[in-house]
Amino acid sequence: MVTETIIHRFNIETYHRLISTGILHEDDRVELIEGRIVDMTPIGTRHSACVKRLNSFFSRKLQGFAIVSVQDPVLLPREESEPEPDITLLKYKEDFYSDELPKAEDVLLIVEVADSSVEYDREIKIPLYARANIQEVWLVNLLENSIEIYSSPRSVGYEFRRIARNDQTISPKNFPDVSLTAKQILG
Predict the structure, then answer these.
(1) What is the CATH number of the domain that holds 133?
(2) Average pLDDT over residues 36-47
(3) How high is the mean pLDDT of the chain?
(4) Higher pLDDT, 8 or 29
(5) Which helix (H) or strand (E) holds 16?
(6) How far are the Cα atoms of 35, 68, 122, 137, 165 from residue 147, in angstroms, in the given order?
(7) Residue 75 needs a FRET pair 20 to 30 A away by CA distance; which of 102, 111, 135, 140 works?
(8) In angstroms, rounded to a whole number, what is the distance separating the alpha carbons of residues 168 and 162?
(9) Tell me: the pLDDT tens digits for 127-166?
(10) Residue 16 belongs to some domain of the structure
(11) Is 182 inside a domain boundary?
């Protein structure tokens, strides 16, 4: 006799209830991805430095034009997901999203920095962002010293993917005058 494995899926409301009742804590390194509570991989020093560089660069260049969100949740209700990207550029709001979490339509750019999580980010999170109609995602691949730039979301993924390395210049689609090289991001 074969037994069926049952996987419990969580919706966003239940996930928030787990947090508010103290079952999950703010400091737990988890995120809700497609109804599953997923442990996030540990952050190493190179990963951390890359996130800090991006935060510093975007904060200086986009002050008053966008909000730079660092490892904070983005609500993707249709996908039953609440990922915590490394860097998210959000539409500027005076209240800094104090009344509700940013949603997919508030996102101008998501940046995921990855070493041990490259395949997970590429195979799970990037298609999730495409289904949520997030217009642009960068995957900073620390293993290959490259930046994968995804744009033009479709239901099955992104139509365009470009890879930048070394001195190649990249700019967020929404801020074409703000540019930096792959080397500046990777350190």
Answers:
(1) 3.90.1570.10
(2) 91
(3) 94
(4) 29
(5) helix 12-20
(6) 28, 19, 12, 10, 7
(7) 140
(8) 11
(9) 999 999 999 999 999 999 999 999 999 988 999 999 999 9
(10) no
(11) yes
Name the token pair of 153: 């979301």
The tokens of 114 are what?
């990855």
What is the Cα Rg of the chain in Å?
Answer: 17
Q: DSSP for 109-151? A: EEEEEESTTHHHIIIIIHHHHHHTT-SEEEEEETTTTEEEEEE
Count of domains for the chain: 1
| Local confidence band at 4 (pLDDT 50, 70, 90 cut-offs) | confident
pLDDT at 2 over 80: no
Residue 157 is encoded by which pair of tokens? 């993924």
